[in-house]
């Protein structure tokens, strides 16, 4: 019996090594255009664009199936970057898909939370932790601000809190190392 288990374990190890090697050796690279588009998107995975996440939306843009102005979290800045990358004309954010908002993160009022786990199930990035019938909390650095946890909460204990600008949350918006145009010296 023990010998049979050892043989099966050995076979499993060898098979795992072969499959691992094959996965590395024969890795199929994705479409470079899709990867570039996806890198511009905010990675909120919110679905406001009409697609189940940023990668499917990037694929749809690359295939010409979606407009570049469907991502509220990416906002005007994201649309401009996509227009530049793709050589397309800039379009304002589509009102059909929402409005641009300041970056925010979910906050759970732990005294009101009933531990239903519906928010955990709705979170596309696993930023909410907790257990059934126990309070939940949001791991703020992981939260993308997608707001998908708001609707399923039966006690409305989740609110969106604006994320303040810090060194770790600040975005490089200007081409010369973050210096705003009005503060640059004339050359």
TrEMBL record:
Positions that bind [4Fe-4S] cluster 2: 113, 116, 119, 153
Residue intervals of the 4Fe-4S ferredoxin-type domain: 104-133, 135-163
Matches recorded under Pfam families:
Fer4_21, FeS
Where does the record place the region Hydrophobic? 1-23
Sequence ranges assigned to domain 4Fe-4S in this UniProt record: 29-88
Q: Does the keyword Ribonucleoprotein apply?
A: no
Its top-level enzyme class, in one word, is translocase
The subcellular localization recorded is: Cell inner membrane
Record-listed [4Fe-4S] cluster 1 binding positions: 46, 49, 54, 71
The note on cofactor binding and number reads: Binds 3 [4Fe-4S] clusters.
Tell me, in one coarse class, where this protein mainly resides. membrane
Q: Mind listing the UniProt keywords for this protein, alphabetically?
A: 4Fe-4S, Cell inner membrane, Cell membrane, Electron transport, Iron, Iron-sulfur, Membrane, Metal-binding, Repeat, Translocase, Transport
Q: Which GO terms describe its molecular function?
A: 4 iron, 4 sulfur cluster binding; electron transfer activity; metal ion binding
Stated family: Belongs to the 4Fe4S bacterial-type ferredoxin family. RnfB subfamily.
Q: Give the protein name, as stated in the record.
A: Ion-translocating oxidoreductase complex subunit B
Organism from which the protein derives: Pseudothauera rhizosphaerae
